[in-house]
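Record format v2
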Amino acid sequence: MPGMQPPNGAPETPDGVQIDLISAGRMSNLRTMEKIRTILDSVHDGNIVILEDGLSPDEESKLIEVTMSEISPDGFTGIEIETYPKPSNDGGLFNRLMGKGSDNDNKLTVIGPANRIETLHKDENLISALVTRR
Amino acid sequence: MGLLTELRSSISRVTSKLFAPDQGPKRIGIYGPPNAGKTTLANRIARDWTGDAIGPESHVPHETRRARRKENVEIERNGKSVTIDIVDTPGVTTKVDYKEFLEHDIEKEDAVRRSREATEGVAEAMHWLREDVDGVIYVLDSAADPFTQVNTMLIGIIESKDLPVLIFANKTDLEESSVQQIANAFPQHETVPLSALEGDNMDEVYDKIAEYFG
Ligand SMILES: Nc1nc2c(ncn2[C@@H]2O[C@H](COP(=O)(O)OP(=O)(O)OP(=O)(O)O)[C@@H](O)[C@H]2O)c(=O)[nH]1
Ligand SMILES: [Mg+2]
């Protein structure tokens, strides 16, 4: 599968890349800072986070701010963040994984550690590739 | 004017400033990705109307690492004058790696310091955007791809605050420049082409600033 290997220099993990799917339902119970912590804790662990529901503009603004405060030399270098159109509503694997949680936007938000997601983020088929792997 | 009247009028000027903050100049934040030409633009505006500059410009990204302010910039348009405070902000990004500075012949110690300042500066700029600006000039390099996640997020944040915003398609002097591509990326906003470096189209720039932020 192209693009699934960690970029050169990134630490090898047995699974290559771990994906953390966060459903709309799980996020809707959290406050802004709890959401940001959930995302960044997972990203700090080297995971790629897929949010079924995007963040609000205010949450995005705070996510950038908190991300900045956690960057350190030779450690965390920040995040890559991209949005993708949701896979169509055809009862595919993604929909089975997520259930029928959300309909308020048709975008998925993908967030990952900047030093690992770089090779992935330009691939428009990223979502299906990642979800299939799980 | 007698001494007393002069004193009284200057006191009332001071107190009206103290007690009516809404009447002060609007604070216009200059935002955009690193290297778009924000400081070059801020310096040009400041030089044109106040005579001095705001801060250093450089091809090294994250040259601006602290928001810098120039207060009471009085711009004259069609016999009217508009006074604004200009805030030049660090280029917004979601990642900073000090190793990128090493490519610009900067020593490691300096690179680490610059990246720490850059992260603090970006955090501060986000904070300003949420609380302390009254309008935004969003500067883009018209020779670069505008369809980035950072641009989309920033414009979304600005829109959610209902702030007046102008998109500046900078660097029109470059051959690869495409103002149309910038306008297509953000069709809901007005795009103004310019070259901050060459000073091209500054008349329209000031017309629009007066129209949007006056
Ligand atoms: N050709 C061309 N170059 C420009 C123009 N405006 C700025 N530049 C150049 O672009 C580079 C970055 O300019 P700055 O004004 O420092 O950019 P900035 O947006 O303030 O960058 P940061 O502070 O790092 O976020 C410098 O080398 C400028 O000379 C322009 O209109 N045309
Ligand atoms: Mg600058």
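Chain A touches chain B through 22 residues (CB under 8 Å).
The longest helix of chain A spans residues 57-70.
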